[in-house]
Write a structure and sequence with these properties.
This protein has 181 residues and is of the alpha+beta class. The protein has 6 helices and 7 strands, in the order H-E-E-H-H-H-H-H-E-E-E-E-E.
């Protein structure tokens, strides 16, 4: 179960940017206190620091503390614990997760300077896959350069036999090289 939590910082690019394969949004406001508390529970410094970083950088008025009264109370009751973590992005130099064929690498570990590349090898039995065999994204200095556009608003067509007629569900629009022959 610890690896599930660790995926969050392994897929973290910079600020609120996260790797966004398979219909995920590129920008995510994580539940900072939940991430920090989980990191504390499994004794993972990177996870605790990412939670503290996120808490200090989120615009509370815009997104709320955590979305529900019980989560907001947990946030408030854990401010002392939050203050024990340095607010820091892990910014890992490289990541390889063989089970999901996910890799990420940045030019300089601990920094957003330079290029960040993430790629995933896929197959058509993966949930939310867009009939792709792979995908990649590229960032420079923490900002997107080549992205996955994600998914449009789900409709009945999204879940029908016509799903691959929607442009956001086609491989050609998901950074997948294709033959022009």
């Amino acid at each position: 179960m610890q690896e599930i939590g660790r995926y969050i910082y392994r897929a973290h690019i910079h600020d609120t940017y996260y790797v966004n394969f398979s219909d995920a949004p590129a920008k995510v406001n994580i539940q900072s206190d939940l991430v920090m508390r989980y990191g504390n529970r499994i004794k993972d410094q990177n996870l605790g620091q990412l939670g503290a970083y996120s808490a200090r950088n989120q615009r509370i008025a815009e997104i709320g503390v955590a979305g529900s009264l019980s989560r907001e109370l947990l946030y408030l009751f854990n401010l002392d614990l939050m203050s024990k973590y340095e607010a820091k992005e892990p910014l890992l130099k490289d990541v390889w997760l063989p089970q999901t064929r996910f890799m990420a690498a940045r030019q300089k570990g601990g920094s957003t300077d330079g290029f960040y590349l993430a790629a995933q090898g896929l197959h058509n039995d993966k949930s939310h896959n867009h009939n792709d065999v792979g995908n990649f994204i590229l960032y420079a200095d923490g900002e997107p350069v080549i992205i996955d556009v994600g998914v449009e608003t789900y409709t009945a067509k999204t879940f029908s036999g016509d799903r691959y007629s929607i442009w956001t569900m086609q491989s050609a629009y998901h950074n997948l090289p294709r033959s022009m022959v």
